[in-house]
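pipeline/complex-builder :: batch 7 item 3
reading input block
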Amino acid sequence: MTAKIAYDDVEVGTELPAETFPVTRATLVQYAGASGDFNPIHWNEKFAKEVGLPDVIAHGMFTMAEAIRVVTDWTGDPAAVVEYGVRFTKPVVVPNDDQGAVVEVSGKVAAKLDDGTVRVDLLATCGGQKVLGMSRAVVRLA
Amino acid sequence: MALDQSFVGRSYPPSAPYEVGREKIREFAEAVGDANPAYLDPEAAKAFGHPDVIAPPTFVFSITYKAAGVVIQDPQLGLDYSRVVHGDQKFAYRRPVRAGDRLTVTSTIEAIKSLAGNDILDIRGEVHDEAGEHVVTAWTKLVARAAEEA
């Protein structure tokens, strides 16, 4: 594992470069195929509304996959991630238009641990609302 | 009806091996729009010290969740799957999943709770490679929302 960020170069509070991730209906169909999660709430508006959702929603695991990119783009080598967890607090609603939705993710170093790792806390929002809670990664730096 | 607490600690037999392929990793990386060369280019992965392309951190969920089907669909447990939502997800990695891996998953029920009529089920999936070495552990919290009163 060869992270391009050195442990000695970060402090508690160091911010990772924030990123934005667009999500359209086409994105969700592609993710359904790649992941094998064909739950109709992620592609069938009629079904989603019947079960009480405002519209089609993104796969929680899709949002989780995007959020960690703020870490893996920072370290270069994705193997730097030794732990990663989230709570799915609010769905990302994806309307059937050209825009879809946008997930915004930022992260900062919340703790430096003793073994050459740091804890990164991630903030993922959509339309100003937090969509992931307790979103944290433990990351091994160079 | 609340789930039977006696299922806590129960482990199920390991899943059949899942063989991780380079093109499946590529398909997943493209679906999440991630062009990290460690996922796509074996030479770039080797430059990072990996024997072959590695999978994005959440890729393994497809494997562990499928394996958790033995728990979710266990008729004796009786989880109402039509009411299930994904509450939390966590992974702890010994090493990244990589192309060529043949992975098996052993699913264990870690906890069962009942909260305001919701059933909360914590499943741990231990992922091992063909040599029996631990690769990653996945914790999945499922919430079966309370049934509406008839």
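note: The first strand of chain A starts at residue 15 and ends at 23.
queue -> next item
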